[in-house]
Amino acid sequence: MIRAAKVLGAGALVGLAGLVWGSVERRFPKVTAVSVPGRPGTARLRILQVADAHLWPSQRWEVDFIASAADVPFSLCVNTGDNFSDPGALDMAKQAFAPLLRRPGVFTFGSNDYFGPHFKNPFRYFFGTSSADERPEVPDLPHAALAEFFEGAWQDVRNRAVDLQVRALPAEGDPAPVANVSIMGVDDPHIDRDRVPSPPAGWEQADLRIGVSHAPYRRVLDAFTEAGADLIICGHTHGGQVRVPFVGALVNNSDIPLEYASGLHDWCAGGRTAKLFVSKGLGTSKTAPLRFWCRPEIAFIDINPAN
C-alpha cells in the first residue's frame, strides 16, 4: 500500500509539473525558418506566416511578438486565421498586425475568427475532429470588423483567388526584383466553409503558386495540389499542442496523418506533388491554455530558386 501510494504521488507530481511547464512554454514563442525550392530562374522570396494567435485581453506578449516580425525582410505575409478568441481582443489584433500591413499580404479565417471558444472534453480529439455542430449558428466574434481592417492593405482569399506582385529579396548589390505570385485560398474547412475557387488568371505563368487554408483537410490539400500549387500553407493543428517527446503529436483535429501535424512535408494528389507547410501557430484556446513540447511559432518560408 505504501509503495502504491508513493507511485501515485510521484505520478501526480509529474502531472502537476507538466501542467506548470505547459502554462510556461506557451509564452515562449520562437521563429521557425524553412526553405522550399522554387522554380528555376525565379527570384528568392520570403513568406511570413502567422497562424492561430487566439488573442484574448491578457495576451500582450503575443501582440508584441507578432508586431516584431515586421523587423525581418519578407515578400508576402500569409495569415491563416484564428486571430482572436474574445470580442475584447479586436484592438489587440489590430495592434499586432498593423506593422505587417506595410507589406503585401493575404488572409483567410479560422473558426475562432467567427466563434468564441467553449469548453470541450480534450479526450474527444482522440476519437475525431471537433464538430461544426458544436458551435452556435450565428458568429459571436467581430469577424467583419477584423476583415475590414485587413482589407485596407491585404487581399481576402476566403474562397477566392488572386494574382499579386511582390518584392523578392534583393540579391547582393542588386535591387529587389518584382515577382508574380498567384494564390488560391479557402475559408475554414474545419467548419465546412471551404469552396475551392478556380485558379487566378496568372496561375500558369506565376513565379510561385500558393494554396492557403486555415485547416489542412485532405479535400482542400488535394484540390490545391491537383491545380498545380507549388506550396500550401496551413495552420489550425497547433502542432498537436501537447506533444510526447520522441513520439510527436497525438492529435491534430484534422483528417491528415498525425505526422503532418506540423512542419514541411510533400503532399501528393492527382499525380502531382506540392510542398505543404503546417504551422504550430502562436496561441492556444482560452479553455486549454498550455503547450507541451510544442513551442508557439511564427514561420518564415524562404523560396530559393532551383538550379
UniProtKB/TrEMBL annotation:
Domain Calcineurin-like phosphoesterase positions: 45-239
GO BP term (any one): lipid A biosynthetic process
GO molecular function: UDP-2,3-diacylglucosamine hydrolase activity
One Pfam match: Metallophos
Highest taxon of source: Bacteria
Residues of the signal peptide: none
Cellular component terms per the entry's GO annotation: membrane
Protein name: Metallophosphoesterase
Classification lineage: Bacteria, Bacillati, Actinomycetota, Actinomycetes, Actinomycetales
